[in-house]
Amino acid sequence: MGKICKSCGHYYSGEYCDKCGYGKPAEVAESVKKYRKAAKKKPLRMQTEEDKKLYAKWAKEEKQGQVQKRTDPKAKVHFLIVVVIAALIVLGFALYKSGAVFSNTKEEVIQQYFTAISQGDYDKFVKCFPKEIKREYDDDRQASGLSKEEYMKALYQEFTDTYGAGYSITVKFGDMTPLSPDDYDMTAYKEQHGSAPKLSEVCEVVTNIEFRGAKGSQQSKLFIYVGRSGGYWHIFGMDEDMGSINADGSPNEGEIPPVVENEDTIK
């Protein structure tokens, strides 16, 4: 059944006027906009209560329409995703800096140092040190023209000559003494290497070492200084007591005691 458009007088048979769009549910028709605009110009003193309610309804509809146009329904989801990713990045960085993840221990870095020497593993060896010392080893190796394997062999050839090929290294840890900022100063380190890392912890680790091979054996007591920076422990230096030691770490002026079987032996 046909209808006459209340806006333009056009005859139409659908749900809305196909000429001016009056009655179209998806959007406010142009004719309705014109009608509302003209109606709003009606003086306030001539407006009835129905007019006021109708104008209020129109204002609400127009406001809702504007908000709907400005708001992307996916914007909140995208915003939440960005916030979550940012939070995870911040949390991950904080955990890394604190050493809660991707960290090592004082014992592990020292054990890695002697394992790298025994195995001739250059990459594992230089990772035991802070970046400044690592850089110096890298520069020295490149200047020498040696491969990583050749460099490690040349660096510790003395051990092979003294103890024989395939020598083992036994590592036993003694006292671990935390050092306060008053006990250590990075000024000399910075002058020597150009820069110095910011250390959150520093510790002196008494480490008893035994080299044993076909040609001979020797024990020594080392005072290894390790520092923690960026969640990782690195070796910054060591002092050696050339005298032999007993199994309990006490000095031994006599014969070298036998290897204790339950110690960490590296071959």
UniProtKB/TrEMBL annotation:
Provide this UniProt record's keywords sorted from A to Z.
Answer: Membrane, Transmembrane, Transmembrane helix
TM spans, by residue?
Answer: 77-96
Question: What is the source species?
Answer: Ruminococcus albus SY3
Specify the protein name. DUF4878 domain-containing protein
User: Annotated region Disordered: where?
Assistant: 246-267
